[in-house]
Amino acid sequence: VQLVESGGGLAQTGGSLRLSCAASGTIFSINDMGWYRQAPGKQRELVASITNSGITNYANSVMGRFTISRDNAKNTVYLQMNSLKPEDTAVYYCYAKHVVIGNYWGQGTQVTVSS
Fold first, then answer.
1. What's the CA gap between 40 and 91, in Å, rounded?
2. Distance (Å, whole) CA 99 – CA 108
């Protein structure tokens, strides 16, 4: 499974960005997809996840500001990020969970929020 991310960049506080992650390869055994992030000097943390039936889960820190969605026909997961804060600055990693193998990871995309 290959994951290709896009959509990171620079935003101002209160602004918005949309991340996309397209999966290709042997994807029929993928269930959950989602996003982690890692800020400098911090551990990687789960931001949001979505099952292949559309059940979502969010970190408390992004609840109400971020929305995860999934287009199964396009094998793509999206993260709409609104009301961005400087503390959202991090490298965001897409993941896809294989039912046997575990997580596949994207290459990461930088999100920087200026104050």
1. 9
2. 22
DSSP, res 19:
E
Q: Is residue 66 exposed (0-12), middle (13-18) or buried (19+ Cβ within 10 Å)?
A: buried
Residues 6+ apart with CB under 8 A from 70: 33, 50, 52, 54, 76, 77, 78
Positions in the chain short of pLDDT 70: none
Predicted pLDDT at 105: 96
Phi-psi region of 11 (alpha: psi -120 to 50; beta: other; left: phi over 0): beta
Q: What DSSP state is assigned to residue 85?
A: -
How much helix, strand and coil, in percent to the nearest 5, is found in the chain? Answer: 5, 55, 40
Strands 9-12 and 109-114: parallel
Question: In whole angstroms, what is the distance from residue 14 CA to residue 89 CA?
Answer: 13
Tokens describing residue 66: 């971020």
